[in-house]
Amino acid sequence: xxQPLNLPPFEANIKKMDGMxxxxxxxxxxxxxxxxxxxxxxxxxxxxxEQKGYSPTLMANEVAVSLNGMSRRCxxxxxxxxxxxxxxxxxxxxxDVDITQKVFNQICxxxxxxxVEYLVVSNGMKHYCCQVNLQDGSYKFLPDIxxxxxx
Length: 151
Prior knowledge:
This protein has a single domain, classed as tt1808, chain A. It is built from 2 helices and 9 strands. By secondary structure, it is of the alpha+beta class. About 20% of the residues lie in helices and about 35% in strands. The strands form 2 sheets. It has a 6-stranded mixed β-sheet with strand order 4-5-6-7-8-9, sandwiched between helices. It has a 3-stranded antiparallel β-sheet with strand order 1-2-3, covered by helices on one side.
């Protein structure tokens, strides 16, 4: 059993398949290995949908980006209403991983490619959200994750 997180509980669809415990990823509509990081991802995605008004049709998990010729994956990307332009990147860590400058550097590298206005990092226990000024590169930490209508 996975540890409780600092996120609202949800009814997880968990099954044992192929000798592994898997959880349904509601965005990819497939069962994936239930790791501590995936536990955080699924909780956070449900939180965004159920508490913050985000539409699952405007969200994607494991989005590929090319960074300096290398393929990387953003944990979750949220798109604007038209679905064409990304607005937010969310990076997840296991609950026992501290949110450090190294984690923010990782999400900032992804943002060099996607150029979103909001960066979110969560380990399931602590959650941080920055609003980025794309013109001058400055940023400010927000007290909460914005509701989708506020993006």
